[in-house]
Description:
Blueprint: H1 6-28, H2 38-48, H3 62-77, E1 84-85, H4 89-106, H5 110-118, H6 123-143, E2 152-153, H7 156-159, H8 161-175, H9 194-211, H10 217-224, H11 229-248, H12 265-282, H13 286-294, H14 298-316, H15 330-347
Antiparallel strand pairs: 1-2
Helix pairs in contact: 1-9, 1-11, 2-14, 3-8, 3-9, 3-13, 4-12, 4-14, 4-15, 5-6, 5-11, 6-10, 6-12, 10-11, 12-15, 13-14
Amino acid sequence: MRGINSRQYLMIVAGFVLGAVAALMTVAGNPANMGICLACFYRDITGALGLHRTATVQYLRPEIMGIVLGGFISALAFGEFRARGGSAPLVRFFLGAFFMIGAMVFLGCPVRAVLRVAGGDLNGLTGIAGVVTGALIGIYFLKRGFNLGRSTPTYTAAGWIMPLFMVGLLLLAIFRPQFIFTSKEGPGAAHAPLILSLIVGLLFGFLAQRTRMCFVGGWRDLFLVKDTYLFSGIAAFFIGALILNLMLGKVHVGFVNQPISHSNHLWNFLGMILAGLTATLLGGCPLRQTVLAAEGDTDAGITVWGIIAGAAFAHNFGLASSPKGPSPLGPLAVVIGLAFALAVGFLMRERID
Length: 353
């Protein structure tokens, strides 16, 4: 019988530690069941830059800057920084945007879906079911030759753009010039101290880079090739967050009255199908895309900018849900996004059945 190797031990330990830290961040000031949420935090950054004007979700989240810089430091230290790009960047931009729209209908990314369940929010199960279903649809296309094309090496300077941009954002977060928007109430006003958020982000970025952690790729590999490596990180992350929440008395089981959550199961499910499908076609969830961008992957950088644009679309066009439920236009945007993702899956194949 094959045992757990050292590589998988590292993934399990990293997942457990990061899950516990994510749960602990809610005590430090981050919103409940949102210790770390890539979609939510990119949304807040988008608002802080004035790209949307929803006053309750505007804050330069240092965790995101830390994830990029932590991944960048790790990639440099272990000789894994490689500038590359050119794999269908425009398609990736729109897949990233539609990922974000699906996540905003659900109110969270695949990372937050796990954290929501670890906090007792059973609506997170609907979201996880959607992620898994989206990954399974993506697997259908992968088995039939879906491919966004190969990336090729490019100038080293191009790979530095995203880390340098995050340094700029960090300086803005530290000095807080007047043109940066900051929420006075709502989720954007709930945040841990800047230095703690940055340290946690650095830890996330470093460990995620070393392990290749991905909250959609884990499901993809589990069903596609029966590989449990990435999935073990998701499971350990959940256990770490659950144990911390139990210790802190933060587990409140149910569907209703959950923080920054709604109970429209249909659109929670469909929104996260869109998120799971687009992430599978892209080759990774927002955490993985963020870390890849830190490693010099300019295609992942374009995906991150698509996610930022999706956040702007979601809030400027009234697509994002609220605790009251989906907005009138959010479901329509999900349907359009699913049509786009399915068209990409069918049309971008190396062989046609």
